[in-house]
Amino acid sequence: MQPGALNLISDVAGLRVGNAEDAALKSGVSVVTADAPFVASVAVMGGAPGTRETDLLAPDKSAPGVDALVLSGGSAFGLAAAQGVMDALHRAGRGFQILSARVPIVPAAILFDLLNGGDKAWGENPYPALGRAALAAAGPRFELGSVGAGCGAQTAMHKGGLGSASLVLEDGITVGALVAVNPMGSVTTPSGRHFWAAPFEIDGEFGGLGIDPVPDIILPESRKASAMAGLGNTTIAVVATDADLDKAQCHRLAVAAHDGIGRAILPAHSPMDGDLVFSAATGRKALVAPGMQLAAIGHAASLCLSRAIARAVWEATPAPKDTLPTLRAELQSRSS
Predict the structure, then answer these.
(1) At CA 290, angle to CA 255 and CA 237, rounded to 5?
(2) The model's pTM
(3) Cβ–Cβ < 8 Å for 65, 37
């Protein structure tokens, strides 16, 4: 397996990603969409999720597909980003048709970034506008790091961010991941010099720092917890494939992808995290051996998600009023 041409979730043909953020707010929105509705599901393993329209993604629910998936900062306020996306899609003639009515289906998940040093004293909820802007910006190429839903994200020790990665399987099926990284846990080993995801890195995509030669499972005191009393967490992601999956298979994909969070963040899936993975399938490639191929797709999704988590932190950039350093800045200060 090798990364796709862009090493982004948009290597899954037909998918587009858009980001919008507010630097003063230190928050933002990321949207995954396509030209046509796509099959989607979700798996939640964190203890404190914030979601919209996720019940309909269960295999026994009637909605056949979704028009977009939204990842947002802002805690519960950020769920309003989906309304902005929904309104824009409706104006564009998109949505699930019910006689003369048309209803865009836009599930969403949020992370908590209300205590990260940004100006949260808004008069009107800014997230619907950010959702519209993210949808309008959607395309195959997009930035990583301190953008979109990852704009104000933080890990236990360093600034978080938005990450993405992809893989092309031997049978030609493409798998990708997009993630906003804001966990209670740490993405780096206690030395602060290596990523937990290092064994899965390809071509130095998150700095080529290598595997920690003496990893310690006893983690140092969390900088984030010290500053925020353990509040303000959650890693939210989308994994996608061009394989033709039904909703039940998509759900299994989302479950398998959670392993990527567990491999890249310690600890993961805590009571204070709302860890959630959406899955999406565009249906362009039929499965000839569904059981074995679905297992391979799930494995690839977990690897992509681990790599995307590390890329998010590696690509984060410093900004005024940050409460945590970026990993790159800290490594530079140690070497100087």
Answers:
(1) 25
(2) 0.95
(3) yes
